Amino acid sequence: NLIPYLGGIIAIALPVLMATVTKDGFTTQLGVIGAYIFIQFIDNNILVPRIVSSKVQINALMSIIIVLLGNQLWGIPGMFLSIPFVAVLKIVFDRIEGLKPWGKLLGDNIPTRHKGDLWKNPLRRKAVLPE
């Protein structure tokens, strides 16, 4: 349980140490820490759930729960093996008639309305002027 925390601390400590040695003041160190926090936020909250849920077609919330359960059962190897294991289970659940509700529980088969065109035509609102 300690490895993810140590990895993050080491990943930020080395660049901050390098910034301390090479630059004067503390603004560079704060910039490095801010960039690290921003990148981790984007990666953990936006990219990983979307990539995992789109490629494996498992609900993003369910994928996070599954990884945490895999960690509790088998540790680090369980975290790596949990998504492929549940992806196989989802395929089995989707093919067997009596288990289809379980496949829907795991799945993320909701079709997207915009199909990637979300940013092409932003919605324009008309100004409402008081009369």
Explain how this protein is built.
- By secondary structure, this protein is mainly alpha-helical.
- It folds into two domains: 1-43, no CATH class; 57-108, no CATH class.
- The chain is 70% helix and 0% strand.
- The mean pLDDT is 80.
The profile of the biggest β sheet is: none
Number of helices: 5
Uncertain stretches: none
The topology string of helices and strands comes to HHHHH
Shape category: flat
Query: CA-to-CA gap between the ends?
Result: 63 Å
Percent of sequence in beta strands? under 5%
Total discrete domains:
2
Task: Look at the helices and sheets and give the structural class.
Answer: mainly alpha
What share of the residues lie within helices? Answer: over 70%
Output the radius of gyration.
22 Å
**Mean of the pLDDT scores?**
80
Question: What's the count of strands?
Answer: 0
Protein topology:
Layout: H1 3-22, H2 27-56, H3 60-74, H4 76-95, H5 100-106
Give me a quick take on this structure.
This protein has 131 residues and is mainly alpha-helical. It has two domains: 1-43, no CATH class; 57-108, no CATH class. It has helices at 3-22, 27-56, 60-74, 76-95, 100-106.
What tags apply to this protein structure?
131 residues; 70% helix; mainly alpha; single chain; flat; 0% strand; 2 domains
